[in-house]
Specification:
heterodimer; A: mainly alpha; ABC transporter involved in vitamin B12 uptake, BtuC; two-stranded antiparallel ribbon; 2 strands; 68% helix; globular; disordered C terminus; B: mainly alpha; two-stranded antiparallel sheet; 11 helices; 73% helix; 3% strand
Chain lengths: 292, 293
């Protein structure tokens, strides 16, 4: 992309080149944090974010490598498979208590890992390589900021209020006429879509994807983004993701301990910080009568 | 050929049932999905590994030691993570999240300390010879698993159905608050149930480690997929359902590997899980409607 000099000075090029990987993963992890946020915002827990991301990554890579489609077609197509899986799992589980969705989605991650590993079409343990790096930085951040903006508008609207009501007290929300099932399914599909985008983008910046990148550990890491930030606003989980992505970059010693740290963050956040580190609340268009 | 496949399936299913037993007990009584359960399985296998390798214990001493050790770990984790959650707003999801974070920290710490290499129990621990019964081959490890599963399942059912302690546990599963009013110390009972489930997981870890002979920290996480399938197909909290579903899963997996493709073996259980959720969400043998908050 070419921009005039005053908007795009030369030093920015060097900066972007040096920190390219970090910049890409900040944007992609931000999208993943949002995909977690959408589900948590309706009071559900899906642990399939990494699995949905993997489905997006694998389907986009196969579309690029086998069908040679251009990336601008591949990117929107890459969210179809994760959404189909989300529908197949969400259909029965969203009617039940939240435990079932969590169990089924965590199982999805494990089973997909086994399928990628054992089926030759997906490259087995070697994964798929030689994916062109056709995802540009502006695409990642464009999607990220578009997603933040849309989710922000939704959170401020009546839909956002219904979502918050479901989270606080499901029965009361149902009594007030909130169609709980439809909101939950919508949230899960949106979450799968965002994770699918993130997967397609990550596959097309790293040129290689493997079966172990979408397993148990990344699934928990994505949850830790959202819980560190909190789910008061759509921005909070993104900031949580950025903190947890930058931390190992700044403190090299932390890298080995990263998984332990992510796990402990979840434990501490649930036990002591139920609203997250950034516990802002959304301001409504029509302000509530009195803050509690 | 068919008889051999069926036997293999049932024996594999016995390991799944054994593994899922404690998991479903924990959910049935404490009403929490404890995702650290897989870690107790790994812990049991490692305790047996050190007991036999370093201390030279025989298997009949290492097995109870591993079960007790894993049970104590389970009790400690329950105290540390779950007993604080009782007042939280949404205990089901909070317990899922807190145990998920906890188990990642535990697995990563175990990998950092023990390494991720695959370790093996000493081969002389149990004879490598196999029995041939009517053309069907069964190894000693498989026989041990079968006996242990039968003993542990019938022991658990006897405990739950035939003793005053079991009555208290069932009362707590039914109505924890009412059980408390009847003079049952629910906190101590919760610890005891955690200990029992942890011990079952630990025993399963030793026996399955013995059968497949591959021990590494994440082995419990790989087993959890089977655990989920078994407890949901059998009905959450249903001990008998878990046994039947475990055997069923074992047979289906072996049949898939034998007659379809071995690559699909891991996926078939999950398809069963989704199919059961669509059609019979309270499990294949479920009686009541799903509990709602």
């Amino acid at each position: 992309m070419t921009l005039p000099d005053w908007l795009y000075p030369g030093w920015l090029d060097d900066f972007l080149w040096t920190y390219q990987n970090v910049i890409h993963s900040l944007g992609i992890n931000g999208l993943l944090a949002l995909s977690m946020y959408v589900v948590l915002a309706v009071g559900q827990l899906s642990l399939g974010q990494a699995a949905f991301m993997g489905l997006g990554a694998y389907s986009s890579a196969l579309l690029t490598l086998k069908l040679k489609l251009p990336f601008l077609l591949v990117l929107p197509a890459s969210c179809i498979t994760p959404m189909l899986f989300a529908f197949a799992i969400g259909g029965p589980t969203l009617r039940l208590s939240g435990v079932y969705l969590a169990i089924a989605t965590i199982g999805l991650g494990e089973v997909l890992r086994a399928v990628y590993l054992n089926v030759d079409y997906f490259g087995g343990a070697l994964g798929l390589s030689g994916i062109p790096d056709s995802a540009e930085t502006w695409m990642i951040y464009g999607l990220l900021f578009a997603a933040i903006a849309v989710l922000w508008l939704i959170a401020r609207s009546g839909v956002g209020r219904a979502m918050e009501a479901m989270r606080e007290d499901e029965t009361a929300a149902q009594m007030m006429g909130v169609n709980v099932g439809r909101y939950r399914m919508g949230a899960l599909l949106a979450s799968a879509m965002l994770a699918g985008f993130a997967g397609a983008l990550s596959a097309h910046v790293s040129s290689f994807i493997g079966p172990n990148e979408y397993g148990f550990e990344p699934a928990v890491t994505i949850l830790s983004y959202a819980l560190l930030g909190g789910i008061g606003t759509p921005l909070a989980p993104v900031l949580g993701a950025w903190i947890l992505t930058l931390l190992p970059e700044l403190l090299r010693d932390v890298t080995d301990m990263r998984s332990i740290l992510n796990g402990l963050i979840i434990v501490l956040a649930v036990l002591f910080l139920p609203n997250g580190l950034l516990a802002w609340r959304m301001r409504r268009i029509a302000a509530p009568a009195r803050p509690r | 050929m068919l008889a051999q496949q069926l036997t293999n399936g049932i024996l594999l299913g016995a390991t799944y049932a054994l593994f899922a037993l404690g998991f479903t007990l924990m959910f049935g009584v404490l009403r929490v999905i404890n995702l650290t359960y897989g870690f107790y399985f790994s812990a049991g296998a490692f305790i047996a590994l050190f007991a036999t390798r370093a201390a030279g214990m025989p298997i009949w001493a290492a097995l109870p030691l591993a079960a007790i050790g894993a049970g104590v770990i389970a009790m400690l984790i329950d105290r540390l993570l779950l007993s604080r959650l009782n007042r939280a707003r949404n205990p089901e999801l909070a317990s899922l999240m807190v145990t998920l974070g906890g188990v990642l920290a535990l697995y990563s710490a175990a990998t950092a300390i023990l390494g991720s290499d695959i370790r093996r129990l000493p081969p002389e621990l149990i004879g490598a010879e196999a029995l041939l019964i009517g053309g069907v081959r069964i190894t000693m490890a498989q026989i041990l698993i079968l006996i242990a599963t039968i003993v542990l399942v019938s022991g658990l059912i006897l405990l739950l159905r035939g003793t005053r302690l079991g009555l208290a546990i069932r009362a707590m599963a039914e109505r924890p608050d009412a059980a408390g009013l009847m003079g049952i110390d629910t906190r101590r009972l919760a610890s005891l149930v955690s200990f029992l489930s942890g011990a079952l997981a630990g025993a399963a870890g030793v026996l399955i480690g013995l059968n497949f002979n591959a021990i590494q920290p994440y082995m419990g996480e790989e087993m959890m997929l089977r655990g989920f399938v078994v407890v949901i197909v059998g009905g959450l909290g249903d001990v008998r359902g878990a046994v039947i579903a475990g055997l069923l899963l074992g047979v289906i997996e072996v049949a898939t590997a034998g007659y379809l493709a071995s690559g699909l073996k891991d996926a078939v259980g999950f398809c069963l899980l989704v199919a059961v959720l669509w059609t019979r969400p309270s499990g294949l043998f479920g009686r009541s409607a799903v509990r709602r908050a």
